[in-house]
Design goal:
about 65% helix, 2 domains, mainly alpha, about 0% strand, about 190 residues
Length: about 190
């Protein structure tokens, strides 16, 4: 049927794009591409919603389930990962607010382009909590409150607040800026 969200090659392109997006954020969260691929495949296979009826709802549901699966995997790897807010987050970071200084396109370019190596190396140095906060805020564009709620599902007790997420995120942004500056300086030398 013409005009259907699932008709033609446009639907295939949208589905592929959504799958790649899910895989990318899962790989950034987990730091392991094979685990991320398995998580996305299993999640998509288990979702019981018609993507043709409401593509946005289907994508949102899959995204939430992939995010929850990634947080669960991080919690299994380190059961204490979300048990406390990092102490350094209490004081914030080197920036005044936690608005993302990069657009989604700039972050995508950084992940795919020449900055991919330094970005992934930097992410590998983060704790699970810092990584979970950074990817949700910078890559997924989630709010501090939504990020705190997602982490609290695996924190036990639920200690994460929007303010704590903001502090961790500002700290991560400062760390990323410093890391990228040092890698750019090293390349120029």
């Amino acid at each position: 049927m013409a005009g259907s969200p699932c008709s033609g090659s446009d639907a295939v392109v949208r589905a592929e794009s959504a799958a790649v997006e899910m895989y990318q954020f899962a790989a950034l969260m987990l730091g392991d591409e094979a685990t991320a691929l398995s998580l996305v495949e299993n999640t998509v296979a288990s979702v019981d919603v018609d993507p043709c009826a409401d593509p946005a709802a289907a994508k949102g549901l899959v995204r939430e389930r992939v995010l929850d699966g990634a947080l669960e995997a991080m919690h299994r790897q380190d059961p204490g990962a979300f048990a406390e807010v990092p102490a350094a987050a209490q004081g914030g970071g080197c920036i005044e607010d936690d608005t993302v200084p990069l657009s989604g396109a700039e972050i995508s370019e950084l992940m795919a382009g020449a900055g991919r190596g330094p970005l992934r190396a930097w992410l590998a140095r983060l704790t699970h909590a810092q990584r979970a906060v950074f990817v949700q805020r910078a890559v997924l564009g989630r709010s501090n409150a939504d990020t705190a709620r997602a982490i609290n599902r695996h924190a036990g007790p639920s200690i994460w607040t929007a303010e704590a997420v903001s502090g961790v995120f500002r700290q991560a942004l400062c760390s990323l800026a410093s890391s990228l500056l040092h890698s750019a300086t090293a390349v120029q030398v």
